[in-house]
Amino acid sequence: MDVVGLARLRFAVTGSLHFLFVRRRCCSGIWHTATMTPAITSAITSAITAAAAGTWKLGDLTVNRMGFGAMRLTGSAAFDLGTPSDRERSIRVLRRAIELGVNHIDTAAFYFSSLRSANELINRALAPYPDDLVVATKVWAGRDPSGEWWWATPEQLRGQVEENLRQLGRDHLDVVNLRVPPSRRNGSIAEHFGALAELRAAGLIRHLGVSGVTPAQLAEAQAIAPVVCVQNRYGIDAGHDDDEFVRACGAQGVAFVPFFAIAGAGRERGATGAESEEILAVARAHGVTAAQVRLAWTLRLGPHVLAIPGTGNPDHLEQNVAAGALRLSADDVARIDSLRADLRGKG
User: Fold this and answer.
1) Within this chain, do residues 328 and 263 fall inside the same structural domain, yes or no?
2) How many domains does the structure of the chain reveal?
3) In the chain, which end has fewer C-beta atoms inside a 10 angstrom radius, N or C?
4) In this structure, what DSSP letter does residue 307 have?
5) Residue 244 sits in which domain range?
């Protein structure tokens, strides 16, 4: 077995790219030690598929737990916060994601920059769609052609659903999340969710989810129609109540799909500022990036937790997918728990 083969084997067994040593004999008969090189690390990363993270069912649809978020496909930052992306590069990223086994893509009609639309890029890159591909989108939030935000009435949700159908070139949507506005954080979502349930009954939507919700709002939605997933902001900086909600979703068999798991406080602009020393130490121990550590930590929360990291960079895509095979040790988790305690103390 060559060095790359041995490295892949170790990563599959230990979840670490670091501290792999291969002994070899040189022409003088003396044994030397070869360590990991960037080329070997890249070869291992590109060989890992989304299946390494395991699977979960969204209703009757089986997905790999490592998915892909389309928000960053349209530019250097989300929406109109950066410069528009290179169209062909974004298409290559999407096609490479499918090659790597990604079969769960999160998108929205309001994911667009001045020149690029995430839904249209997905359509261009992937149609006709693979049979096992699950595309999830979200409504209630919207942006007009100039980019201004607006929030739909219950009656306008059908128009938002049909907008997604047109852009994606589909006759039904696999999963639609009701994205609750911050102003409704503690209010009723029954009227809007009820409108989506009617569209599900009409055959335009296969499964329903909710986003940006409280446990009470999830329960309110479940009293109207089945909910297959909750999509909330969540990461290492989350509070105790958020932790409890993640666990509660698992107990109910509802997928929890965190967004900004890597970006954290950077939100739509992406990760900003210096990474914490605790995360960097774990990353060094495994020979991986800080972003991969954050994704691995997210996935270890439970089999119902699905990751949807987004990127417009082919190399970052492969790193994100490879994070599904990274296994954190008890010491790693303890170090991250210490960081979380410090963050909560400062909060």
Assistant:
1) yes
2) 2
3) C
4) B
5) 49-346
Which CATH number goes with the domain that contains 79?
3.20.20.100
My answer on whether omega of the bond before 226 falls inside 30° of 0, hence cis, is no
Ramachandran region of residue 299, left (φ > 0), alpha (ψ -120 to 50) or beta?
alpha
Claim to verify: residue 174 and residue 302 sit in the same structural domain = yes
Give 273's pLDDT tier (boundaries 50, 70, 90).
low
Structure-token match 């020149």, residue found: 115
Does residue 22 have a pLDDT over 50? no
Residue 239's pLDDT is 85
Catalytic residue among 68, 111, 259, 260: 111
Joined together, the tokens standing for residue 17 give 């790219």
The per-residue pLDDT of the chain, averaged, comes to 87
Q: Would you put residue 210 in left (φ > 0), alpha (ψ -120 to 50) or beta? A: beta
Contact status, residue 173 vs residue 205, Cβ threshold 8 Å: yes
What is the token pair recorded at 311? Answer: 């990127």
CB 181 within 8 A of CB 139: no
pLDDT at residue 261, as a whole number: 83
> What's the rounded Cα separation, in Å, for the pair 15 and 328?
7
Is the model's pLDDT at 324 over the cut of 60? yes
Place of tokens 């987004």: 310
Q: Tokens representing 198?
A: 């009617």
> Is there a catalytic annotation at residue 111?
yes
Tell me the C-alpha distance between 171 and 199, whole Å: 12
* Same domain, residue pair 219 and 167: yes
In whole angstroms, what is the distance from residue 223 CA to residue 190 CA?
A: 9
Write out pLDDT tens, residues 41-67: 555 667 899 999 999 999 999 999 999
Q: Are residues 170 and 242 in the same domain?
A: yes
Same domain, 109 and 15: no
On whether both 42 and 55 belong to a single domain, the answer is no
150 and 41 in a common domain: no
CA distance 179 to 177: 6
